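User: Could you check the structure of this?
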Amino acid sequence: MKIKSLRFSGFRGARETVSLDFPPGFMVITGRNGSGKTTVCDAIEFSLTGCLRGPPDKKEKGENFADYVWWRGDPKADEEFVALTLVDDNGTQHVIHRTPTSESGTEVLTLLYDGDVALDNPVQQIARTLLLRDEEITRLSVHLKETERFDLVRAGLGTADFTLAEEKSREVQRLLKKQNESALDEYDKARELVARQTSELSELRSLAAEAQDISEAKATIRELTSFGEGEDLILATKEVVANCRYKADAFARIFRRIQELIDRRNQIASEEYLQRVKALESQTNETRGALRNAEAKLDEVRDAFQSAQDLSPESASFAMLLKHGEGLGLQKGACPLCGKRLAQHEFESHLAELKSLLQTRDARIQDLTTKVAETETHVRSLRTQEARLIAEHDSLTHASGQIEDEFAVFQQEVLGLGTELPSLSEQTLSVLRERIEESREKASRLEKALAALEVSRLVDKINDVEGGLRIASGRVELATRRLRKLSSASNLTKEALNTIRRTRGELIERRLAELEPLMIELYQRLRPHVDWHEVRYRLRGDVRRMLSFEVGGGLNPSFMFSSGQCRAAGLAFLLALHLSRKWCKLDTLVLDDPVQHIDDYRALQLVEVLSAIRRSDRQVICTVEDRSLASLLARRLRSNEADSGSVISMVYSSEQGAHVGTQRFVQPMARRVLVGA
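Assistant: Sure, the predicted structure tokens are below.
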């Protein structure tokens, strides 16, 4: 799941509505201080959690950060809302809408995490590890207390929580008598072995995947592509795979459209369709006959009116004038005939008097005037009906030719793909099915062969390490059973408490063992320190678990590093934690001005790290102040071949508050940049 769009109004620094459409690849947001970059990040967090973290324990004059979530400027905002649209892997969109007094769509939040793994308040943990803020990067990593750092990792990695069990066990802790030291020692050794082997297994799995024999892979590629010995098989095969996938998609699209054409043709040939055409012809003929009769009657009525007018021209003119005035009605409070200002009831009373006078003088002319108007209306209605029936009949009779024209277009398109289509029939669909399956099967076989060429032969070593891990895990289980057997009735509760604590630590150590290689790699890429190229974690404490960082010979980086170095080390830790959340289904990373206090060299290293993260199909949203850095990010983050990105600049004005100044879309990187002459 990724972020699709964000709309907010009257929120933080924005008075009017701000609309942002997030591409699936990345978005770089730039602008000066106070232009609204952080407001965008705040809106994302508020949409997910319904609150903002803000400065800790900040209070002044009886107010706190929550009192300034909505626009406080003058004039007041017309609307106050935040709406976040998420899109899942199936393309289904989910909207979370919040206002100062209501919320909707929050049920989608349960889709963002695996409830069997995540701890309490999983949405808060998602927001905490999804959004990396400038002012929090160091405070939530290097400078965090050891116990709080342990809790952060435990919550972020999604291991189990045993708080309730611990509280119950403490109530009967006085029953504990003794512990078996040898069994505990064996358990600890086995646990350390599990942690080491889990770490090694994680590194091996990151380097290798399911592979086949390399010679067999090369034979498969040459069989399907006829590449020579001197060619770069990997690069050339990737181009062939891409072409196969393109053809398969094109054939599938054309297949669906031709199926629609066949269905339409069958519908045209149906008895119901033909009956409809005949019915339209019959209705048209009937309407034409009725129209001729109505036109003849209109001529008769007009002739009769003309004759009556010739006998009494003054009455006829008077009748026409009366009908004209009655049809117009009062015009801005004045009579349309004489221009005298009258009230409505006076005008109606005057018309009634004139009608009575006309009927007294010549009732026949009045009657003929009404008949002429009614007959003209009837004739116009019949002409409109005739035109509608003719248009519908022409549409039905020309449908067959349109189908043939559309099929000819598809024939030309398929011909460009190297295939000829017969006539519009089920045979055409069979040909397309064969081409779809051929293209997909060829792409699948080539992709499998590529995987074999791109990885090392590490399967046997992985199996050995997995076997050792199973043995070590068995030793842990044996030690646990031995501890239970050696526990007497008097120490049962405390033993259970210790087991709970050790199990929690074991889970954390296993997850940390998987996290450590990633954290070390990110640390090495960001290079916070010239001399110390690696950072390690150390767990200590059994009752209160503490997690500390060490560099060099056991040195604490929080005391040794400068603010910029602490920021780089903290980014490595928080990015590793973000990427290790297996329970989180929201594949989006948001960084709010992460380059503050970082020199240009490490800023460039961070750009490369984010580029690597993008290649894992993760959506990256990053705010920076420097426009040159924003352009560099846009160039590096577009390395993905499918997902687009964009660069927007935020500006602030007294009238609107924060709003979007400019937006530039960045298309995915082309598969082939250089083309032979």
